[in-house]
Amino acid sequence: MSGVLTFGETMLLLTGSGPLADLDTMRVDTGGSESNVAIGLARAGVDVTWIGRVGSDPAGDRVLADVTAEGVDVVPVRDPARSTGIMVKERLPDGRTRVTYHRRGSAASALTPGDLPSGVVEDSRLLHVSGITLALSDTARETVHAAVVRADDAGVPIAFDVNHRPKLVDDRTGRGWYRAVAAHAAVVFAGDDEARLVLGIDERPGDEAALAHELAALAKGRAVVKLGSRGAVASIDGVLHRRDASRVHVVDPVGAGDAFVAAWLAADLTGASPEAALDRAADAGALACTVDGDWRRPDPTALGRIDTTGVDHAVHDRVDR
């Protein structure tokens, strides 16, 4: 078998320090959940393929070049009729990161099952999919379901990150989509708010263990719940594992969840224990918060240099998405 397979939308990313209306310049970059995970896996030494549909435009050129340069095997699908999506990220004075998408009708929204070549799912070691792709369009959702069926038929395990985006889909509709995919997944990743959404339960303080166990029961016995500043919990075959958050000064929290998922999957694929996988995932998510960009390489010594007095945890709840 080959390595991990993932697919989804990666956009041109414009980042500015302050409200867009007040800016004269912005930094050009790229970002997308599935390609972020692919980059994290590649950096961990895991063979990984990302399939991305982009426009036949300079933005698409930049997306493909960035992901390829990070060691990912990129299978591009160029769409001459549609444009590559654009994401705008503003760091607001109150500390929030506001993300705005310009992706309706984008090239990636036209993703179809035919964009997944014959054998690419079946020959993979693991299929990773995200709830974002489910919400892009009807054909993108059909592509996720087709990939899941192909993986099941070939005995390829599936990793599913809920990645709920309220700006793309309402809670009730998303819940049905996420539950359908989670039922096929060997492991499900979710924030605590996403886990409650998927399970259809109200917030209950101190119920992280129950969330993890219930989410794992919906899947095939394994679930990881990201708790932001409170760390993470994992239910693995009925056993609960817990990890506190690694403390860092947060520069940009966007992409931290993808780094977390990539590190967990890389550790799990190499036979690491759930405790070791959680340790690596928590540190990777924290380090991702220390750099400006969704996938830019952090300084690996940052955790060891931090004076934990008066600094932030690695958090994922200051993003308006």
Description:
- The protein has 321 residues and is of the alpha/beta class.
- About 4% of the residues have low confidence.
Brief rundown of the structure:
The chain is an alpha/beta fold and 321 residues long. The protein has helices spanning 33-43, 58-69, 131-136, 138-154, 171-182, 192-199, 208-218, 256-269, 274-288, 302-305, and strands at 4-7, 11-17, 27-31, 48-55, 73-79, 86-91, 97-102, 126-130, 158-161, 187-191, 222-226, 232-236, 239-243, 319-320. The strands form two sheets. It has a nine-stranded mixed β-sheet with strand order 5-4-1-8-9-10-11-12-13, sandwiched between helices. The protein has a five-stranded mixed β-sheet with strand order 3-2-6-7-14.
Q: Based on Cα principal axes, name the global outline.
A: globular
The oligomerization state is single chain
Number of strands: 14
Helices, by number, come to 10
Give helix % range: 25-40%
Largest sheet: 9 strands, mixed
> Secondary-structure element sequence?
EEEHEHEEEEHHEHEHHEEEHHHE
Spans with pLDDT under 50 lasting ≥5 residues? 305-318
Order of strands, main sheet, comes to 5-4-1-8-9-10-11-12-13
* Beta-strand content: 15-25%
Termini separation (Å)?
Answer: 36 Å
Rounded Rg: 18 Å
